Amino acid sequence: MKALVTGAAAGLGAALVQQFLSSGGAVVAIDRDELQGGGRLVPLVADLSDRDSVDALLPRIVEAGPYDFVVHNAGVSATGPFEQIPPQAYRRLLTLNTETPMVMTAELLRSGSLSKGAHVVFISSLSHATGYPGAAVYAASKDALAVYAKSVRAQMKKRGVHVTTVFPGPVRTAHAERHAPAGARADQRMEPKDLAARIIAAARRRKKVLYPGPQARIGHIAGLLAPRLTTRMMRRIIFEKLDRTVY
Asked: What Pfam families does UniProt report for this protein, alphabetically (predicted)?
């Protein structure tokens, strides 16, 4: 079994790589930071927020395939009043969170780099269900990715490829800590190792969507039943407590 994981150097990406390696698989791991390869781990360095870098990477990805598992994990946020965040930060965010997974998926399909029965996983966000005041463009990028995944699912199924979209809540990572409002409790965030195991298990069960853990499932239901109330709550517990703009 061979997996492709983006954003593989830390957090959830690193946990996914370790899960695949521990189960005997080989991994092509992509990150802008260098990873130590060897054995069943093949590291590729690229800035997935830069389209030129992505285009240069595509032939290397194809050459390293085919893949049984692809996880589009790489992502970045921007928090604070949206009018205070410069356009170049949003451009980087939208390229990384939305455009790159689409471009990579299209190239993997076009080149026949996905094995029969392969799994493709898109990491969206719980904000798809609840809204995310204080991170409007991040929420928009993850919404777009979720709609894309839903739209291509049927066509990819015809090719023997299963699509799973994941909507996680807060995860205990350095990135989440950097964007968290003052006083946010890290112990209430899901551990990357736990989330990685849930993602792989859900994909193997061919689940279309995954809201991992009680917090994400409750947020999903609340967003469906009381969207306006849920968004107001998110504004109070996140946006109103942000004491800085981070991008």
From this structure: adh_short
